[in-house]
Write a structure and sequence with these properties.
Largest sheet of chain B: 7 strands, mixed, barrel
Shape of chain B: rod-shaped
Distance between the termini of chain A: 16 Å
Number of strands of chain A: 7
Strand order of the largest sheet of chain B: 10-13-12-11-17-14-18
Strand order of the largest sheet of chain A: 6-5-7
Helix content of chain B: 10-25%
CATH class of the largest domain in chain A: Mainly Alpha
Structural class of chain A: mainly alpha
Strand content of chain B: 35-45%
Number of helices of chain B: 10
CATH topology of the largest domain in chain A: Butyryl-CoA Dehydrogenase, subunit A, domain 3
Helix content of chain A: 55-70%
Radius of gyration of chain A: 21 Å
Oligomer: heterodimer
Number of helices of chain A: 7
Shape of chain A: elongated
Chain lengths: 194, 566
């Protein structure tokens, strides 16, 4: 029995070796996502690599009175804490630091558990995966903040905010973790090794 | 099922291709790794240069905020601050851009730029908003990574090497501060760097002259304080002078090179100069001389020394000597006039004199008394005993010097005139008591043209005052020499002609007083004859005559013909 990944129609391809297609939507039917583990690994590695420049390089340049100050994500959080905006600092910390790290570590953990064939905490791992997929989109918050700031705060010499290289890397981290979560087939968690 | 089929039949088993080849998805992490590797490589290549700079005071330096700006361009950033182990300096860790590495040499200097408001203007204004920053001045020497920051910005113009560092010594700092400017002809050429006091309690002023003007400073240059303004006033008007507005507020130094010393060698680093209190003193500076006065009445530290009316020097210090018996007046005489300072030179104070006959030296009432001198001969000398009044010794003039012997001095004073036919022909140069105290000796100087008038037979009398003869039969007779002589006193003399002398002898013989008729007749008769020749021989220098209290009638009638010297 194969569930169509597109329209969730349950079909029975039987023992046929040839590529089957969903009779309802025409999507190709696969028992599991195609090369799920391999792709997830690759995407995860990519996002892991990008995580470093994203956090270490400045994410935006604040030009205040002609003086350019590069700010990394952590710098920005520090500034918010210093100015007393703990809530905003918390949100940015959560969305920009905690979530990407949590996602990458979470997926990594699940992948290792599948590879090692651990049989415990199955439900918890699935739950974690659901959370990872849910919060993935919120990580883009930082990028949006920068985009809006760059557009709004453009007062020439007085104050200007421009995105810095880390913004791209950070966006890449978010995109690749989302893709990694997408390519991973949760059913592998439950599957008995062949 | 298929397995059974394969086992049971001869159908060849298909070659199974492993599907586990490298999926193209792995390009992504490879690309990511490449990017990350490139970033790492770039940051390594462009890694800054870490340098520690020790500051005495790190106020305003912020970690990650304060930058090193050179020529308006940020070239470094403060990465860390830590207090030195000895708790005396703050080590500031600065990361410089790679390009700066070659310029971080031993003599590179760093300092903090703070906003300053001075009469020169406002500088470092940008630091008010952006915070202080550090800046540097490249130097030479081997490359270094540890520096000591300057406590204040280096002197004006010192960013270009080749300037001149000199030291001035002064008694007081005036209102000089580090940063006070140095002017040459009103143009800013340097700056005061530091003030200190040496062990002799002199003020040492370190001055930096920037390169372009270093050649203006000669070993003979003179520096003077132009702080504030100078005010010179008198009845003829006044003058206020200030070098520059900024000198007025933060003090300044100006210098010049005296005309006669223009070709002196250029000054070199470390040369020491005296800082004069004002321009006048600097201009006067020459040989120091000490004049010993019995009292300093009228002498101030601005009293001039004049020779023939020209200012040749100035007094700058007046002090009592150790025993408090005399006044030591220290003065300087300008270098062109040093030849006047010889052993025989006499100095005296010229004061206004008001007398019945007129006023003398009236200009000193306005300009102040001054010291004048009469040059003498001898070896160069620096200490002089000043005279209490103008010298009246023999050598004053080249005229004929004679001595008159009088019973009493009467009202004769130095400089009293000597008249011949009521014309002034000489003057009294002095008087003293004779050695045996029996007479007053008056030395008289007869001006050269009139010297022949004095003959061995000449008669001198005191022309001072009024003579009133009251006789029973002849009534009263008032007789005076000139009006000036009446007021001022004086001496008159007459020289007899042969005729008169003869007739006088005759008269005495006869005991009859001849009235004018006799002489008048004879005068009319032989104008150029021997009778009009003067008697006696020309008086020698130093000849002594008797000074009579009053003239005899006959003396007034003598009219010898005497050819005057030209």
């Amino acid at each position: 029995m194969i569930s169509c990944l597109n329209c969730r129609l349950l079909t029975d391809p039987g023992d046929r070796k040839e590529r089957a297609a969903c009779p309802r939507c025409g999507a190709s039917l696969e028992p599991r996502k195609f090369h799920s583990m391999e792709r997830t690994w690759a995407l995860l590695m990519t996002s892991l690599i990008f995580l470093f420049p994203a956090n270490l390089l400045p994410i935006m340049n604040v030009t205040y009175l002609g003086e350019k100050t590069p700010n990394t994500i952590l710098d920005g959080i520090q500034q918010f804490i210093r100015s007393g905006d703990y809530f905003i600092a918390l949100i940015i910390f959560f969305a920009s630091i905690l979530v990407p790290v949590f996602k990458i570590v979470g997926i990594l953990l699940i992948m290792i558990s599948v590879r090692k064939n651990w049989k415990t905490w199955l439900r918890h791992r699935t739950l974690m995966f659901r959370i990872i997929r849910f919060i993935g989109r919120w990580s883009m918050l930082d990028i949006f903040v920068i985009a809006i700031l760059a557009a709004l705060v453009n007062l020439g010499t007085l104050t200007t905010i421009t995105p810095a290289p880390a913004a791209s890397y950070f966006a890449a981290v978010v995109v690749f973790t989302m893709l990694a979560a997408e390519t991973f087939d949760t059913r592998l968690i439950w599957e008995e090794p062949l | 099922m298929t397995r059974e089929l394969a086992a049971n039949t001869d159908i060849p088993e298909p070659a199974m291709r492993s599907r586990r080849g490298i999926s193209p998805i792995w390009i992504l992490p490879i690309v990511a790794a490449l990017i990350a590797g490139w970033i790492v490589y770039k940051s390594m290549v462009e890694a800054g240069i870490q340098v520690t700079i020790a500051f005495e005071n790190a106020q305003g330096i912020e970690k990650g905020k304060t930058r090193v700006i050179y020529r308006g361009m940020p070239i470094g950033m403060v990465k860390d601050l830590s207090i030195n182990r000895d708790f005396k300096t703050i080590d500031v860790l600065v990361e410089f851009v790679k390009e700066a590495g070659a310029h971080l040499r031993k003599n590179t200097r760093f300092w903090m730029v703070e906003p300053t408001i001075s009469p020169r203007g406002i500088s470092g204004l940008e630091t008010i908003l952006k915070g202080n920053y550090l800046t540097m001045m490249p130097g030479d020497g081997p490359e270094a990574r540890h520096f000591k920051a300057l406590p204040k910005p280096p002197a004006f113009g010192s960013h270009e090497p080749g300037g001149l560092s000199i030291r001035l010594t002064a008694d007081t700092s005036g209102s000089l501060v580090p940063g006070s400017e140095v002017y040459y002809g009103g143009i800013r050429v340097g700056e005061v760097q530091d003030l200190s006091i040496d062990k002799n309690e002199k003020i040492l002023i370190d001055v930096y002259i920037c390169k372009a003007y270093a050649r203006m400073v000669r070993k003979s240059s003179r520096f003077y304080n132009v702080s504030g303004f100078t005010f010179e006033g008198g009845l003829s008007g006044f003058k206020v002078a200030a070098e520059a507005l900024s000198a007025l507020m933060i003090g300044g130094i100006a210098f010049f090179t005296p005309e006669e010393a223009r070709d002196a060698a250029p000054a070199v680093d470390g040369d020491s100069f005296r800082l004069f209190h004002d321009k006048g003193l600097a201009e006067q500076e020459g040989k120091r001389i000490t004049l010993i006065f019995t009292q300093a009445r009228g002498i101030t530290d601005r009293t001039q020394i004049r020779y023939k009316g020209v200012e040749i020097g100035r007094v700058f210090n007046i002090a009592l000597n150790e025993k408090r018996t005399a006044v030591l007046v220290t003065a300087s005489v300008q270098s062109p006039y040093h030849s006047l300072l010889r052993e025989g030179t006499r100095f005296w104070l010229v004061e206004p004199e008001l007398g019945l006959a007129g006023a003398k030296n009236l200009e000193t009432i306005i300009s102040g008394t001054y010291i004048t001198l009469r040059p003498g001969e001898g070896k160069p000398e620096r200490t002089f005993h000043a005279l209490t009044e103008p010298p009246r010794s023999l050598e004053t003039t080249q005229g004929l010097h004679i001595i008159l012997k009088a019973e009493r001095l009467g009202s004769i004073k130095t400089n009293d005139p000597v008249y011949y036919r009521q014309i002034r022909v000489g003057s009294v140069t002095g008087y003293r008591l004779s050695d045996d105290a029996t007479a007053a000796l008056v030395s008289v100087d007869i001006e050269t043209p009139y010297a022949p008038l004095v003959r061995t037979t000449s008669k001198f009398w005191n022309a001072s005052g009024i003579k009133i003869d009251v006789g029973l039969f002849q009534g009263a007779r008032v007789q005076t020499e000139s009006m000036q002589a009446l007021l001022e006193g004086g001496i008159a003399f007459a020289t007899p002609d042969r005729q008169s002398a003869a007739s006088e002898a005759d008269t005495f013989k006869r005991g009859v007083l001849l009235e004018e008729s006799g002489s008048g007749k004879s005068t009319g008769g032989d104008e150029t004859g021997t009778g009009k020749q003067p008697t006696g021989t020309p008086a020698a220098n130093g000849a002594t005559f008797e000074l009579h209290d009053e003239p005899k009638e006959a003396w007034l009638k003598w009219r010898p013909v005497i050819t005057l010297n030209k």
